[in-house]
Specification:
By secondary structure, this protein is of the alpha+beta class. It is built from two helices and eight strands, in the order βββαββββαβ. A four-stranded antiparallel sheet has the order 4-7-1-8, covered by helices on one side. Strands 2-3 form a two-stranded antiparallel sheet. The longest helix is centred in the last third of the chain and has 14 residues. The protein is globular, with a radius of gyration of 15 Å. The N and C termini lie close together (10 Å).
Amino acid sequence: MGVSMAVQITMYLNEADQWQHRPLHLEILNYLHKENVAGATVFHAVAGFTGRSRVKSSSLVDAGGKLPLVIIFVDTEEHVSRVLPKLREMASHRLIVRENVLIEQGIDI
């Protein structure tokens, strides 16, 4: 496999975020899977903040479901462009970053 161009999307969420009364990160993963995205991962932070909120840490007793989550997925320009409008709707209040990347090895997209 040679080097190929792709798009990486990084979404910055919060544990407490919901979509239709269900955890947003799981709903996004289910949507991406249903849409045959090459793969996606959710990272659970041990500390961080979103927007202008105060810093949350897993060592704080009162963190209570407000720690940051990050979803990252990589796919072709066409595939990302197709799923991005729904992701913008689902996470309208959260940061979504788009980057052009090179796939060196690992997946054929």
